[in-house]
Amino acid sequence: MKRFALYVLLALGLIAGLAAFQNSSLLAPKLTERPVLLAHRGLAQTYSAEGIDAATCTATRIDPPEHRYIENTIASMEAAFAAGADIVEIDVHPTRDGQFAVFHDWTLECRTNGAGTTRDKTMAELKALDIGHGYTADGGKSFPFRGQGVGLMPSLDEVLDRLPNQRLLINVKSRDAQEGRSLAQRLSQLPPERLARLMVYGGEPPVAALREALPSLVTMSAQAEKRCLMRYLAMGWAGITPDECAKQLLLIPSNYTKWLWGWPERFTARMRAVGSEVIVAGPLVGGEVSTGIDRPEDLARLGRPLPGIWTNRIDRIAPLVKAATP
């Protein structure tokens, strides 16, 4: 009996030693490059995330403006790239005439002088709206962007034409599988080198349809990421990367990284080997990911090295990251 217990202890010790070796960063490729910077909504107006839900009109609670840019406009995307972004996130909705409008909301009342839903309008009708109409930082006493956003809602085609060499993360703002198929049909017309600079995330049905139609595309849904990470937690100790993790955008809450086998360098190397992108966001608190790594103290808490960073304040975070990169 004692001998059997000894054998068990030896076996457990070997397994623990194997796990430690397989997941040590000592032999992993070093993350010596600057972290990939992903600018959520381009260079945009910020707002407090406290107490918001899916129905909150965030345009009516912005912080006092520090710049003139409105989210999801081509000008805000260009400004984000100029500030140091490697990837810019944009939101899309189908229009009545078969295009995709780049705009955050399902409905128009919050940000614009229009009414109804984006999908019930033509692209020409959407371009006639003032997308700066609803923004206020003082409870409606003043509207600093009113009258300045007419014609600024771009189509996805315009964005792709204007930024042909830039990396974009496209957010499908629905759970409609047909929307995924329609977007896949549009993206399939792009040259392979352009498609390789795009990623898509959103609801499970449209993202699943996109992955089926365009298996080379890097995508993300909450369900797909959960499948990948749960399988990795079970298998990663042995150095195994699950098939579910291939071609995924992995948006990792900063307070969950400590649970990932081989974080950061071994984990990142494994995911990059299967064509995936790893980005660190704010902590998961109360079931939701925070708005981003937006303050110097948020960045300082992350530690180094890092594969990528999700931020709403590319203008603040990019200079800090650049200064800290050898």
From TrEMBL:
Annotated PROSITE patterns: GP_PDE (PS51704)
Leader sequence residues: none
Limits of the GP-PDE domain: 51-321
UniProt cross-references to Gene3D superfamilies, sorted A to Z: Phosphatidylinositol (PI) phosphodiesterase
Origin: domain of life: Bacteria
Pfam families: GDPD (PF03009)
InterPro entries the record matches: GP_PDE_dom, PLC-like_Pdiesterase_TIM-brl
Protein name: Glycerophosphodiester phosphodiesterase family protein
